[in-house]
Design brief:
The complex is a heterodimer of chains A (about 350) and B (about 775). The radius of gyration of chain A is 21 Å and the shape is globular. Chain A has about 350 residues and is mainly beta. Chain A has an eight-stranded mixed sheet. In chain A, strands 11, 12, 17, 20 and 23 form a five-stranded antiparallel sheet that branches. Chain A has a four-stranded antiparallel sheet with strand order 6-5-9-10, with no helix packed on it. Chain A has helices at about 1-10, 65, 280-295, 345-350; strands at about 20, 35-40, 45-50, 55, 75-80, 85, 90-95, 95-100, 125-130, 135-140, 150-160, 165-175, 180-190, 195, 200, 205-215, 225-230, 245-250, 255, 265, 270-280, 315-330, 335. With about 775 residues, chain B is mainly beta. In chain B, the strands form ten sheets. Chain B has a 22-stranded antiparallel β-barrel. In chain B, strands 9-16-17-12-13 form a five-stranded mixed sheet. Classes of the chains: A mainly beta (about 350), B mainly beta (about 775). The interface between A and B is large, with 75 and 72 residues. Strand 1 of chain A pairs antiparallel with strand 48 (about 760-765) of chain B, so a sheet runs across the interface.
Chain lengths: ~350, ~775
C-alpha cells in the first residue's frame, strides 16, 4: 500500500505526460499446456488441463470453453517407489469443462479408485501426452502431521463485530519443529444460504484463503504450539460460485454480489476446510500467484513469472498432506473432530 | 701530487654537489578577482615542460634543480602568467590569475589542453561549470547530474532523471562527494532534479575508471564536487527566477584576503503561488523542495587554512483529503557538514584533515481518522580523513592517507497508533558499521614517455549489528552480529606518450563496496534503502580494466580519445522477485535481498573542443551490461535495465556575440530493456500472466534535442542580468517513459466480458515531457 501510494503521488506530478497505444513485436509462441493437479492420500488424483493464450489475443465468446483440454492422448500417474501407476480419464463437470481423475465418476454413486495408491512420503510422477508432446512433473506428498502431534487442534467461528451475521474461522495450529513446513488453507462452502435468491448456493470448488499458502518456518515461528490465527474465505474467481458473481471484465478482478461480506463467512455456513502440508515447489508457486496479483497493473513493479514445476508446460503438480474439518459457522462451537470422507458424495466434495 | 688530487677531488665534489641541488617553488593559485582557489592549474617550466598541477585547494609544489627558469601558470579561461625566477632557494609564491574573454584571446596552446595526453589519470573528465550553466536545461533548471549524463560511458536513468549509471554500474555505485561529504540521494523530485545548486559549485570532476587510491567505497565512479569558497575581495551575489524554482547566492569577505563566506539557497514555489487559489482544505496540499548550501573559510597563515561547509535540503509532499479524514506528509532529504584544515608541513608536504557528517533520511506519515502510521528510514555517517600530498621531486607525486567512517543505518522503522492503542516497535531496528581505509599512491615519471600511477587501498569493514558506538568501544557486541571484512584494492594506471600529441593509457583497479542500495523498480525513489554489508550481504566487488588511446589534433584544439573497458562485478544486490520495502520492516531488511554477479564492457569515443567561440563535445558509447542472479530470472543471465547498446551525445556551445550565446544538445540512446507479457493462462480460476525472459525486449530508442539562448545585458558591468530561453525536446519527440497494459472492451455496446468475449489487452506507452519551452532570469552583482 505504502509503495503504491508513492507511485500514485509520482504519477500525479506528471502533468505533461501523454500516452499512445503501441504495438509490441511479440515472439511466435505456441500455446502451452497448463496443468493444475494435486494428489492427496486416500482420495483420487485430480487434474485440470487448459491451454495458454497469447497475451494480446482477443478474448472471444468461447474463450473459457476453448481453453479446457479434454482430449489428451494419455495421462498417468506413477508411484516412483514401485512403479505402480494409475491412468486418468476425463469427466465433465459443467459446461465450462471437467477434470481428469483416476476415479471412474461415470459409475456414480459408486466411485471406483485405489484408495491406497496415494500415500504420505511417496513420490509421484505425472506423465501427459498431448498433441504428440510429453509433459511431465514429479512431486511428493508431505506428511500431514506426526503420530504424536496434531497439526490442527481445533476450529471455531467468531462473529465479526462490524458485520453481525458474518465472521471468521479461527484455528489452533502446531508447527513441527523441523524447518521447511509450509501449510495451505482452502475452504469450500457446502451450504451457503443466498438470502437474495432464497436458496442454498454451495461453492463449486475450494477457494484458497486470502493468505492462501504461507511459509511458517521463519525464525521465531518454527516449532510453535497452539498458534491461533484466522482465515478469510478468499476471492471468487472466473468460475464463480453457484449464487452468481458479478464480473467486471478485468482479468482476475471480480466483485461478489455481496459487497464486503464475500470474503468472510456467513452465519450457518457449512464449510469443509482443508489444511495441507505442501512442499517447497508448491509453496513458491502459490506465493508467486499472490505476488503477481499484488503487482497487477503497477507499471513500476518488476514482473515475475510463476514458478511452474511442469516440464514442457505451465502450472503445478503438487502433493498435499491434507486433513479436513467440516465445520458450521455458529457461535460458541469448537470443532475438534476430523472430517474423513467415506461416502461417494463426501469423496467428491474433497477432490474439487 | 696528492695535494693536487685532493684539490681536484674537492672541486669535482663541489661541482657535482652544486649540480644536484634542488629547490622548490610552491604556493597557492587563485582567481585574482575573487580569491577562489583554482583546481588543476598547470604549472610547468617553459623550456622542459616539466611541471605539476594545483590540487583541490589550489596548492602547488614544483621541485627543480637550481637555476633560472620561466614558470608558466596556465588555466582555461584565465590569462596565462609567466614568472621568471632564480631558483637558488625554496620560494613561496602565491599566484593570482585573471579572467580573460575567449573572444579577445587568441587560441592558445597551453598545458591545460595537453592534460588529455600527459596525465596518467584515465577515464577522468573535468566539467567547466560556466559551460554547464549555458547549456539547455529542463524547465530552466541547471542540473550538474544531467550534464554528467552527456558524457560517454555515463547513462541516464531515464527521461528527466538525474540518476546516472557509469559503465554498467548501478546508481548506488557512484560516490558523490560535496566538499568531501557523501551525498546519498542526490535528487529532488523523485530524481528529476539534482540537489546541487550550480551557483555554489566551483569544480566538477568525474572519475569513471582507474579510480585513484584516495577514493573508495564505491565500484563505478567518483563525482567529486567542490563548492566555491566565496569571494574574499568584495561582496557580491547572483541568483535567478525560473519556472520551477528561484535561487539566491550571496558571497563576500569576512576579512578581506583572509576569510570569506558563500551561502546559496533555492526553493520551489508552485505550492506558495497556488495557495491563495485553493480551497481551505486543499491549501496544505502540494509538493516543494528547498536546499541551502553554505561555506566559510579562514586563512590563518601561509601554512594553515580552515574550511567549514554544509548542505541541507529537503523534499516535502503534503496531501490532505477534503473530508479531512486522510492526510499524508512525506519529507526526505540530505544533510552534510564538512570541517577541513589544510596544513603545510613543508613546501613539499601538504595535509588536509577533514571531519565530515552526512545524513539522508526519509519519512512517511499518514493519518486516517484515528489511525496513524509512520515509516522512517535513515543513514548517517561520521567520517574523518587524513590526506597527505608529498612532492619530493618533479618525478614523484605521492599521496597517502587514512579514512574512517562510522555508519549508522536505520533501514526501515514502522510505528503507528489507532485511538489509544500504540504499536511502536520496542526497539527501533538500527545497524552500526565501521569502515576504515589506508591508502598510498605515487604518480611516478619513469621516463619522459612513461609515467605510472601505482598504489593501493587497504580497507576494513566491521558490521557491528545492533550496538552503539559506545558499546563497540567497550567491545560489548554480540558475536553473531559482528561481521568483518578486510580487503586490499590495488590501483594501477600508466601513460605512455607515443609522440607530442598522442599517448596510450591503461589502468587496472579493484574496488570493494560495503554499503548497498536496495531499490524497487527502475527509478530513484525516496524509499530506496541503504544497507550495510553483513553476514548475508557480502561486500560488492568490482574489477575494471581500461585501455585507451588519446590524441590531440589541430594544435591541441581538439582532444580526442577512444577508450575500451571491461568490468566484472560480484555480490551485486537486488530485491528478490516480488519483495517490497514494507516487507520485513522492523526486521532485517537483507532477508528480502539476493546477491548476484554482473559484467559490463564497451568502447567510448570522445571528441572535445574547449577553446574558441564554438566549444563542445561529441561522445559515443557502445556497451553491454549484464546481470546474473540465481534467484532472479531463474538464474539465466539478463541485460540490466539500463543496458544501452548505443549512446550518443552532442553538445555545442557558441558565442554569438558579446551578449548572446547559444547552446544545443542532442542525445540518442538505445531503448531501456523491459519485460513484457507474452501469454495468459488460468490457474485456480484466476488468470495469470507469463512474461518474457527478464529484460528481453526494448522500448523504442530515446532521442531528443534541446536548444537554449542566453542574453546578457551589460556583460562588462559589475551588475548584469542574463535571460535564458530554453526549449527542451525541440522536435517534440514522444520518448517512452514506461509501458503499461490495459484491458479494453472492443465491442461497440460495451458488453465485453469473459463470458461473451470482446476483450483485448493493449499496450500503451507513456511519454513524459513534450516540447517544453522555458525562460528564466538570472542576475549577478
Amino acid at each position: 500500500m505504502n509503495t503504491k501510494l508513492i507511485y500514485i503521488l509520482i504519477c500525479s506530478l506528471f502533468l505533461f505526460a501523454c500516452e499512445e497505444e503501441i504495438t509490441l513485436e511479440m515472439p511466435d509462441n505456441e500455446a502451452k499446456i497448463v496443468v493444475e493437479g494435486f494428489i492427496q492420500p486416500h482420495y483420487p488424483v485430480v487434474l485440470q488441463l487448459t491451454t495458454s493464450k497469447g497475451y494480446f489475443d482477443e478474448i472471444t465468446e468461447n474463450e473459457l470453453m476453448d481453453v479446457f483440454i479434454s482430449d489428451a492422448e494419455h495421462i498417468k500417474v506413477i508411484r516412483n517407489s514401485d512403479a505402480v501407476e494409475v491412468n486418468l480419464s476425463f469427466f465433465p463437470l459443467n459446461e465450462l469443462g471437467g477434470v481428469y481423475t483416476e476415479a471412474d465418476l461415470s459409475s456414480f454413486p459408486d466411485i471406483i479408485f485405489d484408495s491406497d495408491f496415494a500415500k504420505e512420503g511417496e513420490s509421484y510422477t505425472l506423465e501427459i501426452i498431448y498433441n504428440g508432446d510429453t509433459i511431465t512433473s514429479t512431486t511428493t506428498i508431505p506428511f500431514a502431521e506426526s503420530e504424536t502431534e496434531l497439526m490442527i487442534d481445533s476450529v471455531w467461528y467468531v462473529e465479526d463485530e462490524l458485520f453481525p451475521g458474518f465472521g471468521d474461522f479461527y484455528f489452533s495450529y502446531n508447527d513441527a519443529d523441523t524447518m521447511g513446513n509450509n501449510i495451505m488453507l482452502e475452504a469450500k462452502r457446502i451450504y451457503h444460504y443466498d438470502f437474495e435468491n432464497e436458496k442454498n448456493t454451495p461453492d463449486f470448488r475450494f477457494t484458497k484463503a486470502l493468505w492462501g499458502a504461507v511459509r511458517n518456518d521463519f525464525e521465531g515461528f518454527n516449532g510453535v504450539k497452539n498458534f491461533v490465527s484466522y482465515f478469510d474465505r478468499g476471492e471468487d474467481n472466473i468460475f464463480g460460485n453457484a449464487h452468481g458473481i458479478k464480473r467486471n471484465g478485468d482479468f482476475g478482478n471480480f466483485q461478489a454480489s455481496q459487497k464486503d461480506t464475500a470474503e468472510i463467512w456467513q452465519l450457518a455456513d457449512t464449510v469443509i476446510i482443508r489444511f495441507s502440508q505442501i512442499n517447497e515447489a508448491s509453496f513458491v508457486f502459490w506465493r508467486d500467484t499472490e505476488y503477481q496479483e499484488q503487482m497487477n497493473g503497477n507499471p513500476f513493479a518488476e514482473p515475475i513469472n510463476l514458478s511452474h514445476n511442469i516440464n514442457g508446460g505451465f502450472g503445478i503438480w503438487e502433493g498435499k498432506g491434507a486433513i479436513y474439518f467440516k465445520v458450521v459457522a455458529e457461535k460458541e462451537t469448537t470443532f475438534t473432530e476430523r472430517f474423513e470422507p467415506a461416502t461417494p458424495e463426501e469423496i467428491i466434495s474433497v477432490i474439487y | 701530487m696528492k695535494k693536487n688530487f685532493f684539490v681536484l677531488a674537492a672541486c669535482l665534489f663541489s661541482v657535482s654537489s652544486f649540480a644536484q641541488e634542488k629547490y622548490t617553488i610552491s604556493g597557492y593559485v587563485q582567481d585574482g578577482s575573487s580569491g577562489e582557489n583554482l583546481i588543476g592549474v598547470s604549472i610547468y617550466e617553459k623550456e622542459t615542460l616539466k611541471g605539476t598541477s594545483s590540487n583541490t585547494y589550489g596548492f602547488y609544489s614544483l621541485t627543480l634543480v637550481i637555476g633560472n627558469y620561466k614558470i608558466v601558470y596556465s588555466y582555461i579561461g584565465m590569462q596565462e602568467q609567466v614568472l621568471s625566477i632564480n631558483l637558488n632557494k625554496n620560494i613561496k609564491k602565491n599566484i593570482k590569475l585573471t579572467t580573460v574573454s575567449i573572444l579577445t584571446q587568441e587560441v592558445n596552446v597551453s598545458a591545460e589542453r595537453k592534460k588529455n595526453i600527459e596525465s596518467t589519470h584515465v577515464s577522468q573528465i573535468r566539467l567547466d561549470i560556466q559551460k554547464v550553466k549555458q547549456m539547455p536545461a529542463l524547465m530552466g533548471e541547471v542540473d550538474i547530474l544531467k550534464t554528467i549524463q552527456l558524457l560517454p560511458g555515463v547513462q541516464s536513468g531515464g527521461e528527466g532523471s538525474s540518476g546516472f549509471y557509469v559503465r554498467g554500474g548501478g546508481p548506488d555505485q557512484n560516490l558523490i562527494l560535496l566538499d568531501g561529504a557523501t551525498v546519498y540521494n542526490a535528487s529532488h523530485l523523485f530524481g528529476f532534479f539534482s540537489v546541487f545548486n550550480a551557483d555554489a559549485i566551483k569544480d566538477i570532476n568525474l572519475i569513471k575508471g582507474g579510480m585513484p587510491a584516495q577514493f573508495g567505497g564505491r565500484l563505478a565512479s567518483v563525482l567529486d564536487i567542490t563548492m566555491k569558497e566565496g569571494n574574499n575581495q568584495k561582496f557580491g551575489g547572483e541568483g535567478g527566477i525560473g519556472i520551477i524554482s528561484s535561487r539566491l547566492t550571496l558571497e563576500g569577505p569576512i576579512i578581506k584576503n583572509k576569510s570569506s563566506f558563500i551561502i546559496s539557497g533555492r526553493r520551489t514555489y508552485a505550492d506558495l503561488l497556488a495557495k491563495p487559489f485553493l480551497s481551505e482544505s486543499a491549501r496544505n496540499n502540494g509538493y516543494y523542495f528547498y536546499d541551502l548550501t553554505a561555506k566559510a573559510n579562514y586563512t590563518l597563515s601561509d601554512n594553515d587554512r580552515f574550511y567549514l561547509s554544509g548542505y541541507f535540503g529537503n523534499d516535502v509532499v503534503n496531501f490532505s483529503a477534503p473530508s479531512g479524514n486522510f492526510g499524508i506528509e512525506i519529507p526526505w532529504g540530505n544533510t552534510t557538514a564538512s570541517a577541513r584544515w589544510n596544513h603545510l608541513f613543508t613546501d613539499k608536504l601538504f595535509l588536509n584533515t577533514s571531519v565530515i557528517f552526512s545524513d539522508y533520511s526519509f519519512e512517511m506519515a499518514a493519518t486516517q481518522q484515528q489511525f496513524e502510521f509512520k515509516l522512517s528510514s535513515k543513514v548517517e555517517d561520521w567520517n574523518t580523513k587524513l590526506d597527505f600530498t608529498y612532492l619530493p621531486n618533479q618525478r614523484n607525486n605521492i599521496k597517502f592517507g587514512a579514512q574512517y567512517i562510522y555508519h549508522n543505518f536505520m533501514p526501515a522503522s514502522i510505528s503507528g497508533s489507532s485511538g489509544d492503542v500504540d504499536f511502536s516497535p520496542e526497539t527501533v531496528f538500527k545497524q552500526y558499521s565501521n569502515e576504515a581505509a589506508l591508502y598510498f599512491a605515487d604518480d611516478y615519471e619513469v621516463t619522459d614517455a612513461l609515467k605510472v600511477n601505482f598504489g593501493g587501498r587497504y580497507t576494513a569493514f566491521t558490521h557491528a549489528g545492533k550496538i552503539t558506538f559506545k558499546q563497540m568501544l567497550k567491545n560489548e557486541f554480540s558475536q553473531d552480529d559482528e561481521t568483518q571484512y578486510r580487503n586490499f584494492e590495488p590501483r594501477v594506471s600508466a601513460r605512455y606518450k607515443l609522440n607530442y600529441t598522442s599517448s596510450v593509457k591503461a589502468s587496472y583497479s579493484k574496488n570493494y563496496q560495503y554499503i548497498h542500495l536496495a531499490s524497487i523498480g527502475g527509478m530513484s525513489m525516496p524509499t530506496d534503502l541503504w544497507l550495510p554489508s553483513s553476514e548475508k550481504l557480502k561486500p560488492t566487488e568490482g574489477t575494471q580494466y581500461t585501455l585507451g588511446y588519446f590524441k590531440n589534433i589541430e594544435n591541441n584544439m581538439f582532444e580526442t580519445s577512444i577508450e575500451a573497458y571491461y568490468k566484472d562485478m560480484k555480490n551485486l544486490v537486488e530485491y528478490k522477485e516480488g519483495a517490497l520495502p514494507e516487507d520485513n520492516a522492523n526486521d532485517r531488511q537483507d532477508d528480502a535481498l539476493t546477491l548476484g554477479d554482473g559484467n559490463a564492457y564497451g568502447v567510448e569515443l570522445f571528441i572535445k573542443k574547449a577553446l574558441g567561440k564554438t566549444t563542445g563535445w561529441i561522445g559515443y558509447t557502445h556497451s553491454y551490461t549484464n546481470r546474473i542472479f540465481p534467484e532472479i530470472n531463474k538464474g539465466i543471465e539478463f541485460p540490466a535495465k539500463y543496458d544501452r547498446r548505443h549512446d550518443i551525445s552532442v553538445v555545442i556551445n557558441h558565442d554569438l556575440s558579446k551578449k548572446w550565446t547559444a547552446s544545443a544538445v542532442f542525445v540518442y540512446a538505445t531503448g531501456s530493456a523491459i519485460t513484457i507479457p507474452t501469454e495468459r493462462y488460468i490457474i485456480d480460476g484466476n488468470i495469470y500472466t507469463q512474461f518474457s525472459r527478464k529484460n528481453e525486449f526494448r522500448m523504442d530508442p530515446y532521442h531528443r534535442a534541446d536548444v537554449s539562448f542566453n542574453y546578457t545585458r551589460r556583460p562588462e558591468k559589475k551588475y548584469h542580468s542574463t535571460w535564458n530561453f530554453s526549449v527542451y525536446n525541440v522536435y517534440n519527440r514522444k520518448n517512452p517513459y514506461f509501458i503499461y497494459l490495459d484491458i479494453e472492451d472492443t465491442t461497440t455496446d460495451g458488453s465485453g466480458s469473459l463470458d461473451s468475449g470482446g476483450l483485448q489487452a493493449k499496450a500503451y506507452q507513456t511519454s513524459l515531457f513534450p516540447i517544453l519551452p522555458s525562460v528564466s532570469w538570472n542576475f549577478k552583482f
